[in-house]
Amino acid sequence: MTVPQRLYAECREEEEFLMKESTKSVAKAKKERLFRSTEHAGVRISAEQQQASEDFAQAYIRFLNASKTERETVKNAVSLLEEKGFVPFVPGMTLQPGDKIYVNNRGKAVIAAVIGTAPITEGVRLCAAHIDSPRIDMKQNPQYEDSELALFKTHYYGGIKKYQWTAIPLALHGVVVKADGTSVEVHIGESAEDPVFCVTDLLPHLASAQMKRPSNELVRGEELNLLVGSMPFNQDEESEQVKLNILHLLFEKYGITETDFLSAELEAVPAFPAKELGFDRSMIGGYGHDDRVCAYPALRALLDCEKPVHTAVTILTDKEETGSDGNTGLCSAYLPYFLEDLADCFGAKGRHVMHASQCLSADVNAAFDPTFPDVMERNNCACLNHGVCVTKFTGARGKSGTSDASAEFVGTVRRLLDAGDVVWQTGELGKVDAGGGGTVAAYIANLDIDTIDVGVPVLSMHAPFEVVSKLDVYMTYRAFCVFLAS
Ligand code: MN
Ligand code: MN
After folding, report:
1. Percent helix, strand and coil across the chain, each rounded to 5?
2. Ligand 1 geometric centre to CA of 150 (Å)
3. How far is the CA of 321 from the centre of ligand 1 (A)?
């Protein structure tokens, strides 16, 4: 009997049984067998899984609160990797199954791997997430005084709705490289006793002209000025006393002068911590879920991976939000160089390893928002709590800019997730021609690696406060575990 014939025979048998027993209608039984099921993960998982999801969420919240920038994420990831016995990769080193290695790319990106039992020519299993998030960067000459207020000029990073970043507490994170080459880390606005900063907005009473601007100009780029002080240095007749006072304080604390800002990277990020959200605490609200909500599960899945079949690799990359260019972004050669060096260790060719490799591009997708239903097509959008989202293609205007995973690779991933009892769904980034977007998937696929987007659905993506569901985060971790172990 062919498969359809067998399925048909089974259906007939079940129909006859049901008609005799009359426990459920024939139509109901047929639907259960033939329809795609779309159920809330909460009704599909066991109490043990529920608890595991809760524990994972708490660990994720702690990681997220300590990792608000790409540099901090790399630092925290490397310390977790070293705790688990990962050592810096040295080209040419001898590697055995179970060996754990990592590469720290300039403190802004990291690649880590556990060597598998299969020959390297059978490819690696790669999870790739990004650890940069939309934020407000300081310009190279940031500081000025106007009307006895000290302010920093900024240039926003990534795709933001600029008005969302006004009138909220912001913290400053980053690094200043001084004239003598030494550097100092800045981390201010996170602890309870720290001061914070903000971008001011116009009061509604006087905003009638502002409110008539097109909404993408409601707050303009050059209006994202960070308020950093208001007290003069002393009572001398000198001008710019407020700016002087700030520079005086910065010199006292960090030993830096105004010129040192030229060689600094200072990022303003929301100053509030991630929190459980909802009366039922089923969600997590916080800054930077995109894409640490995939980066953390990808990292944890690798940390928990002992002796995989294929070499398991997690890459946490930078610069995705500005298009992946630069030597810490995935348009650069640092990933293929690593895979080539890894292949060399086994006397193999990098391109043969890449050709046989598989990748989950671990990035978030948009979750359906009932307040804004018009941008989604209900049959093909991700919903909160329906599990990890598999996205076959991204792109815009007729799939431009997507790598579009093959049906065969989607089939492979589908079988893997089902066998691993992972709750998953599919979702497109909005309805056709509503907009669109991309991830690092295309850049990895361009290396001749089978790649598909897999990640967490998010509400209010790119806002200072994004929302995810705990169950979806946990299912994303589970998906990466079964993939890396395969
Ligand atoms: Mn992303
Ligand atoms: Mn993004």
Report:
1. 35, 25, 40
2. 34
3. 7
